[in-house]
Automatic annotation (TrEMBL):
It comes from Arthrobacter humicola. Keywords: Hydrolase. PANTHER family: AB HYDROLASE-1 DOMAIN-CONTAINING PROTEIN-RELATED (PTHR37017), ESTERASE_LIPASE_THIOESTERASE DOMAIN-CONTAINING PROTEIN (PTHR37017:SF11). The keyword Ribosomal protein does not apply. Residues 3-222 form the AB hydrolase-1 domain. The keyword Zinc does not apply. This is Alpha/beta hydrolase. The lineage of its organism: Bacteria, Bacillati, Actinomycetota, Actinomycetes, Micrococcales. SUPFAM superfamilies: alpha/beta-Hydrolases (SSF53474). InterPro entries: AB_hydrolase_1, AB_hydrolase_fold, Sec-Metab_Biosynth_Hydrolase.
Length: 234
């Protein structure tokens, strides 16, 4: 099966390098994406918004003849959900890695400090302790050295959705910072943060306790969790 991997903010396709080996070994074709504006520190970011990134994922979906699996980490979860809305009949499963589907009118994070058209990786002090679980000093240095500024409009643009068939696409939530039991309780309580997730009809939850970047802190376990979800889909 073709698996399209969408990184979160500040990351490119190479961020999935330690996650993909079990997927490849199982015979799946993996397609990690570098989204527009993330090609390098010097890449132009003006005019690149959330829809630009969604369209890039849709173009990747359209390159294949059979339904694909989408995997989105962090802000990439909002992006793959936009692609699910655009191509609900072409996505066999959407896998959200420490993320979830962003509903119509929502924004990924408009509170991140911007510098012109870019949002650089903030100082670690601006993140919550739960974000940084297991992210050692060595991993932090590696992450910061490879981080590419995110196009500002991707973080601030409002999600635009139109096809309710998106709720019929099976989803997997890989919960890292907070346990899945918290998410299901929030859904039961009608919390607006999970309102869109609560409308998806087929959702499975997988707990992978670590911080916000499991592709760095627990890559083998993340690869195994994605593989298990893909195999259940196939």
């Amino acid at each position: 099966m073709d698996i399209i991997l969408v990184p979160g903010f500040w990351l490119d396709a190479s961020s999935w390098a330690e996650v993909t080996p079990p997927l490849v070994a199982a015979g799946h074709a993996v397609h990690p994406l570098t989204l527009p504006g993330l090609e390098s520190a010097d890449a132009p970011r003006a005019g690149i918004g959330l829809r630009t990134h969604i369209d890039a994922v849709v173009a990747a979906i359209d390159a294949f003849g059979a339904p694909v699996v989408l995997v989105g980490h962090s802000g990439g979860g909002a992006i793959i959900h936009g692609a699910v809305d655009a191509r609900p009949d072409r996505v066999a499963r959407a896998i959200y890695v420490d993320s979830g589907p962003l509903g119509d009118g929502g924004v990924i994070n408009d509170e991140l400090p911007a510098d012109g058209d870019a949002v650089p990786l903030p100082p670690w002090e601006l993140f919550e302790d739960e974000d940084l679980t297991d992210l050692t000093d060595e991993l932090r240095a590696m992450f910061r050295a490879r981080a590419v500024p995110e196009p500002r409009a991707v973080a601030q643009d409002r999600q635009q959705l139109s096809d309710e068939r998106r709720y019929g696409v099976p989803a997997t939530i890989i919960a890292c910072e907070f346990p899945s039991s918290l998410l299901t309780r929030m859904i039961a309580e009608g919390h607006p943060y999970v309102a869109e997730l609560g409308r998806v009809r087929d959702v499975e939850y997988v707990d992978l306790p670590t911080g916000h970047w499991p592709q760095f802190t627990r890559p083998a376990e993340l690869g195994a969790a994605i593989l298990a979800a893909v195999d259940r889909t196939a």
